[in-house]
Amino acid sequence: MSMWNRKNSVAIQSYSAKAGKPEADENKRYIRKQNSYRSISRSSSIDSSASYSDSYSSDEDDVSPRERSQKNSSGGSDFCVKNIKLADFGRREIEIAEQEMPGLMLLRKRNCTDKPLEGAKIVGCTHVTAQAAVLIETLTALGAQVRWCACNIYSTQNEVAAALAEAGYPIFAWKGESEEDFWWCIEQCITADKWQPNMVLDDGGDATHLLYKKFNGTFNTLRGVVEESVTGVHRLYQLSKQGKLTVAAMNVNDSVTKTKFDNMYCCRESILDSLKRTTDVMFGGKQVLVCGYGEVGKGCCSALKGLGAVVYVAEIDPICGLQACMDGFRVVKIDMVVKNIDILITCTGNKHVVTRDHLDRMKNGCIVCNMGHSNTEIDVASLRTSDLTWEKVRTQVDHIIWPDGKRIVLLAEGRLVNLSCSSVPSFVVSITSTTQAIALIELFKAPPGRYKHDVYLLPKKMDEYVAMLHLPTFDGHLTELTEEQAKYLGVNKNGPFKPNYYRY
Ligand SMILES: NC(=O)c1ccc[n+]([C@@H]2O[C@H](COP(=O)([O-])OP(=O)(O)OC[C@H]3O[C@@H](n4cnc5c(N)ncnc54)[C@H](O)[C@@H]3O)[C@@H](O)[C@H]2O)c1
């Protein structure tokens, strides 16, 4: 074992964490800006996945959280959530999540005495769900102070945000934030009395971006940034390339414990859930086009194939295209099938993969949604023209009606459909959250010089540790290498078991 690995493996023994599970909720009335497009029945919402929190709807809920003065039962008001009265329900959601996040809970248990994050002041910008709450409470149990906001304007579970606020966490998030609210919430996490953040846990790069652009002094003093998304990581590498990255950053997105579990297994389950909840669609025999055959695309395709859908794949990369072919999918250009498909799903991380021209040519009733990171993959803006009518039929479900009566079913306005319209399996979030927690500890505890102003991947030994924390759930028992076998393979008996270039 190299010196470097030995150090890491020792450090890792003392980590502990916990995790949580989210349950998607739907806003009964989310606020949409009045645009030039026509909206026939915005209020006729049939909420297919109404959560318990909907029963709390009242006139109060129509007031922006920023205009309401709320206090938790301890008199604290350093938070901004939809409705603090939802806290009890949110707490129960968090407790359910804890059950399904065994690895993170084990990390918490093992390290809550050592407190490896003592002194860490973390700005968190992630989806605010029950699983995230388990992460937040784990980081706190490990000694960190946090201020937290949402990385997506639709994905916050209001009751969970309320439970966190009730527990005294400075949390600034609610479902249905406007773009302006979104940036305001992030700013509340960066700036506060007697608060100088030294770490960032980001999903999408927006908190990092705001710190870099508007609070550069603080940005330059950060001990580290941990980033989860493709987009956020891409921005970090760009900064690094330009010589403008002044902190060490950990790319959690490309940790094998994220790409192989969160992107693939999570999306494999949640794509079906999202489509079912929003449209009640039956999959057998339906023609589905999946754009992008990366980890997310592979998960979606495998789930749809399992239910008997006829799946087409659009790809730009010959390797992924060949993989799709070998997995039994037809690789096509969008133009070749766009007129016939029943469902289109984007998962490319790219922009304008689906254009107005494609949408014009789709058949009546085609369902269009995005599993990629943001709302850029489908050119939704091109649908906001005076010739088209928008009819809101359910929460997160819009019918876009062409002059000849043709309707396209657009989900979540082109934003991440699974996070907006379904639940995400807590177990995979546990794996990602444990990876994030360990990345934060690694950056925070690293001796000076281990990490320079660059973007790093988590050492493989730590990825293996994350997986190890989750194996007991399945009563999984690993085989131990003999000395002879370890020597034969040229690896340490205790790992890492694979070279860094190994792809799993
Ligand atoms: N919905 C979720 O829960 C969830 C989870 C993880 C990641 N994501 C997001 O999903 C997106 C994809 O993630 P991934 O891990 O699969 O990435 P990936 O890089 O493995 O896969 C993306 C694929 O899209 C292909 N692609 C790019 N442009 C294309 C185009 N114009 N047409 C067809 N194919 C194109 C690429 O060649 C690549 O194979 C990212 O934006 C990521 O942030 C979403």
TrEMBL record:
Task: Detail which positions bind substrate.
Answer: T129, D203, E228, K258, D262
Q: Which UniProt keywords apply?
A: Hydrolase, NAD, One-carbon metabolism
Q: Which cofactor does it need?
A: NAD(+)
**Listed SMART domains:** AdoHcyase, AdoHcyase_NAD
Write down the top EC class of this protein. hydrolase
Show the ranges annotated as biased composition (Polar residues): 1-16
Q: State the pathway, as annotated in the record.
A: Amino-acid biosynthesis; L-homocysteine biosynthesis; L-homocysteine from S-adenosyl-L-homocysteine: step 1/1
Which BP terms from GO are recorded? one-carbon metabolic process; S-adenosylmethionine cycle
Q: How is the cofactor bound?
A: Binds 1 NAD(+) per subunit.
Q: Where is this region: Disordered?
A: 1-76
Compositionally skewed regions (Low complexity) per UniProt? 36-56
Tell me the ranges covered by the S-adenosyl-L-homocysteine hydrolase NAD binding domain, including all copies. 263-424
Which Pfam families does the record associate with it? Answer: AdoHcyase, AdoHcyase_NAD
- Residue numbers binding NAD(+): G294, E295, V296, G297, K298, G299, E315, N418
Q: Which domain of life is it from?
A: Eukaryota
User: Which Gene Ontology cellular component terms are annotated?
Assistant: cytosol
Reactions catalysed, semicolon-separated, are: S-adenosyl-L-homocysteine + H2O = L-homocysteine + adenosine
Regions of compositional bias (Basic and acidic residues) in chain numbering:
20-29
| Family membership noted in the UniProt record | Belongs to the adenosylhomocysteinase family.
Please name the NCBIfam families in this protein's record: ahcY, PRK05476.2-3
Q: What is this protein called?
A: Adenosylhomocysteinase
The source organism is: Stylophora pistillata
Q: Which gene does this sequence derive from?
A: AHCYL2
